[in-house]
Amino acid sequence: MDQKTLKKLVESISNTVKNFKKSEVECLLILFHSLVERANVRLNNFGLDRNAFRAILHSIFGMTNDILMNRVFFAFDKDNDNCINAKEWVKGLSVFLRGTFEEKLKFCFEVYYLNGDGYISREEIFDMLKNSLCQQSSEEESDEGIKELVDITLKKMDYDNDGKISFADFEKAVKEERLLLEVFGPCLPEAENCIDFEALAFGHILTSSFGM
């Protein structure tokens, strides 16, 4: 990416992202460009496809849950074109790495409602819990145990008793007990992984030839 194009993109994205300085946005764009080229993805648009992004979530952020990695991809991919572009990369990382509690609350809820209808259904809760829990017993016994967990979860979080969890339900429950933020599986990076990623990304600040 040439200096003029980079500067232009940095200015454009910096105006819409509050959690990164301009120099940090620049570093994230340089890293993005490098990751896309390394992935050698053949797309109509320049960006990261689902497999390339999942590889980053796994290798850098230590995520292993297939369902949730896919959902994190879709949470980043705001225009639903199955490709994460430069703006989506920076804006997604803004929440992923340095989001406020409210931003992370919205992000987690978006990851958890799998069918895109704005509610977390009983079936979705079952699937996510089953996917997240390591089961030692038989599948039949496991399913019964998970159904009990689903009932307990809905009793705790479904405040309007409509059999599903709305954002208002989720927000109220998590604000009362913050440990519920990632109740259906880890979709945010651990602090240690964030530190490692920022060291990787922002190490370019002092060495970049495009210093702001």
Task: Describe, in plain words, how this protein is organized in 3D.
By secondary structure, the chain is mostly helical. The protein folds into two domains: 3-100 and 190-210, Recoverin, domain 1 (Orthogonal Bundle), CATH 1.10.238; 105-180, Orthogonal Bundle (Recoverin, domain 1). Helices cover 62% and strands 2% of the residues. The chain has eleven helices and two strands. It has helices at residues 3-14, 22-39, 50-59, 66-76, 86-98, 101-112, 122-132, 139-157, 167-176, 191-202, 204-207; strands at 120-121, 164-165. It has a two-stranded antiparallel sheet with strand order 1-2.
The number of helical elements comes to 11
Decide which structural class fits the backbone: mainly alpha
Are there runs of 5+ residues with pLDDT below 50, and where?
Answer: 206-212
Extended strand count: 2
| Radius of gyration (Å) | 19 Å
Number of domains: 2
